[in-house]
Amino acid sequence: MLVLLGVAGGDTEADARWLAQKIAGLRIFEDPEQKMNLSLADVGGAMLVVSQFTLLGDCRKGRRPDFTSAAPPETAETLYDVFISAVAAQGIPVATGRFRQHMEVELVNDGPVTLVVERGDQ
Fold first, then answer.
1. 99 is catalytic
2. Are 55 and 19 in contact (CB under 8 A)?
3. For residue 104, what pLDDT band results from cuts at 50, 70 and 90?
4. Which of 12, 34, 52, 101 is the catalytic position?
5. Given CB 3.0 to 4.6 Å as the disulfide criterion, which of 34, 58, 73, 110 pairs with 66?
6. Is 54 one of the catalytic residues?
7. CATH classification of 2-96 is 3.20.19.10, yes or no?
8. Cβ atoms 38, 27 nearer than 8 A
9. pLDDT tens across 38-53, in order?
10. Is 83 a catalytic residue?
11. Phi, psi (5° rounding) for residue 56?
12. Within the chain, what is the greatest distance between any pair of CA atoms?
């Protein structure tokens, strides 16, 4: 599973832990009846987590994205690390990108599932 993780200003360690639990527990993999009914742990999967502040880019006005809703890098890196630790604590193998570095990430999207997961109770 590839997780592109954007951290917004105001996000907390509790948010990062909640998100790790939520994503790791999503039943988005097919069972023998081709129903999305299995989690990452159920299928013996792993997670690649890549920090992606550009997910917070607001393109509603003008032609240049506004990134003011993204958390400052120091805060974002701390929450990125909290998220990774919370996933690993569930027994899921985790690989990571390099925070604040230019990376080339290649994805083979095997299936129709791409989700945006946000904490909505705030």
1. no
2. no
3. confident
4. 52
5. 58
6. yes
7. no
8. yes
9. 999 999 999 999 999 9
10. no
11. -90, 5
12. 48
